[in-house]
Amino acid sequence: MAFSTGRDSSDVVSEINITPLVDVMLVLLVVFILTAPLLNNAVKINLPKTATTAPPTTNKAVTVSVDGDSRVFIDKREVALEGLEPELRQLVAADPELALSLQADQGVPYRAVAKVIANIQRSGVSKLSVLTEPGG
């Protein structure tokens, strides 16, 4: 007992069934409605208004270098490792906001650089940047 729809059974149905599409869209809509409040977790703060100021002027940074033979330099002037800390203390006494840049040859043993960093730390320098080459 076959039911006939009035069409020949060999005809291709050219209508698209959009019911699964609507179901998927409704599920996505519910998911977005539920997750949208969770995405907005910023704290609302009214910041005070101030006058525009120029950025602070920074003094010239002192550069401490360690070459391939583990010799230490302060701005191209060779210094013994034992004399590094006292000289940096003098520089910090003259400028408490001293910015120091450290650069070391890539072939230098780690212990030599670690000793220099320890001397810098003991001397009271609070702003230290380590210089490297870009790329590599």
UniProtKB/TrEMBL annotation:
Function: Involved in the TonB-dependent energy-dependent transport of various receptor-bound substrates.
UniProt main location, coarse: membrane
Protein name: Outer membrane transport energization protein ExbD
Gene Ontology MF terms in the entry: transmembrane transporter activity
Assigned keywords, A-Z: Cell inner membrane, Cell membrane, Membrane, Protein transport, Transmembrane, Transmembrane helix, Transport
Protein's cellular compartments: Cell inner membrane; Cell membrane
Record GO biological process: protein transport
InterPro entries: ExbD
Organism: Pseudoduganella namucuonensis
Membrane topology: Single-pass type II membrane protein
One GO CC term, this protein: plasma membrane
Sequence similarity: Belongs to the ExbD/TolR family.
Transmembrane segment boundaries: 20-39
Record text on subunit structure and interactions: The accessory proteins ExbB and ExbD seem to form a complex with TonB.
Keyword Transmembrane: yes
